[in-house]
Amino acid sequence: MTAEWKDIVLNGLWTNNPALVQLLGLCPLLAVTNTFINALGLGIATLLVLVVSNLTISLVKQWVTKEIRIPVFIMIIASFVTIIQLLMNAYTFGLYVSLGIFIPLIVTNCAIIGRAEAFASKNGPVESSLDGLMMGIGFTAILLLLGGAREVLGQGTLFDGAHLLFGEWARGMTVQIFEFEQQFLLAILPPGAFIGMGLIIALKNIIDAKQAEKKVKDVKSVERARVTTVN
Length: 231
Description:
By secondary structure, the protein is an all-alpha fold. It has one domain (about 5-230). Helix content is about 70%, strand content about 0%. The protein has ten helices and two strands. The chain has a two-stranded antiparallel sheet. α3 (about 35-60) packs across α4, α3 runs antiparallel to α7 and α4 (about 70-90) crosses α6 (about 110-120). The radius of gyration is 21 Å and the shape is flat. The protein starts with a helix and ends with a helix. The relative contact order is 0.16. The mean pLDDT is about 90. Keywords: Cell inner membrane, Cell membrane, Electron transport, Membrane, Translocase, Transmembrane, Transmembrane helix, Transport. It is a multi-pass membrane protein.
């Protein structure tokens, strides 16, 4: 893997994660992450749209003038979102109903439009596809982390409603971690999503700060070693 590809992977998963760093697409992220399966369904849909829209925009960019590029990008994204929406309606109807308006709202997800404008319109199809894949995986990972945590804390379960995505055979996938006499509503309701997202962002900032501090120490150690060697 080349250095450029490594940068694309690292950007999507950590350095420039659309949910943690760019803080894009927070409306659906906070709204549907009350369960792990809802988060997974929206994550997969967003990832697919990111990959195919980035690829398509990269292929047609030379024929799109600057004056009309945004409307064209939105039209391309909307076309793929419509395809994903129809497929979900046909094959995962329960999940389609559960996610509701947030499936068509993928069209307005700033993370997708932002990658189309900032990356796909300036790079080749392979790099653009990889960028869409990594950004989609990074976004999905945060969806799953937040959705899983909220489901466990709010309901005491994990993978509840798996049959909505995988079919009737998946009804037995639900894991009962612990039982509540009454659901922990704070975790299930929107305030719990804001608190959980804030904690995840804070954790990332702490990790980044420690890594930066370690790099500074390593640089100082190297400089001291050089000075000692010269003396």
